[in-house]
Amino acid sequence: MPSLADDPSDDNHHDLLTQLNHEREIAVASYKKWLPVGLGGGVLLGLGIGVATMEPLAGAIALIVGMVAGWALARIPVFSFNSSLKERLVKRVINERGFVYSPSGGAFSLRPLKRVLPGYDRESREDYIAGDINGVDFSAVEIHLEDRRTRTDSKGRTTTYYVTVFRGRVASYDMHKAFKNPIILSTNTWDLLGSLSNVFTGLEQVKLEDPEFEKMFDTYGTDQVEARYILTPGMMERLKDIRRRHGGLEAVFDGGKIHLAISTGQNLFEDGYKGSAITRSSIAAILSDVDHITGVASQLGLDAKTKI
After folding, report:
1. 113 lies in a domain?
2. Each residue of 138-149: pLDDT tens digit?
């Protein structure tokens, strides 16, 4: 599949880029105009509190807080402009390539991946994208999952906090073919005691003829023959390659679909157009991020005629 980023945006975006850069210049000019006022107000606040309380430390804290608040207030126009770019720029570029895009999470269901994702109490999502790649329907979204924890100090006071248990991208590819039995690939099924997690109750470990693959993944299913039929040597090589390129990988083959959870620290659709002039290179950066998502289908060798 040719790279979308090989075809950076053209003159169709000239008017849009001109308009966005004009608005950006206005926002930056406003920030530069009001920044001295904001910082000056913070300095006066700090000095005033320091004099009123006769406490140098309190004055120093007030000075820092005031200056940060002044900077933030002055920068509101820039923040507002940048936050609008996903809807006005990223969405348009992706839509023009025939894909659906939403800066928010969209209608992606995590249910098929529940057996391989860690438990969590809080979820956030962004950058939903969906469409068709060589006849294969797909959807993907970036998610951040957090687990709620508590700790109690020596005085018996309890504090609640959250820790990240998964950050990355989840995706589903509809092969329009019925897998009779589910297959689960996981890199995280053994706990510290070395016992199987109960999420795989009813499944048995699948034995495969690829030692490297078996070191990377624990494979479970209900039909050894069908699992080996689906996990061909070529498919196993592609899955290994995805894990090498992107980090952690969990996969579920079920109901004619392949569901992936890819751990990655990369936050897509954030770079290339913020903090500087918006150019054709900015468009190319967006398309490169699209490639990052849709390219997984190519890595898996997926198309509507694929015979797994």
Report:
1. yes
2. 999 999 999 999
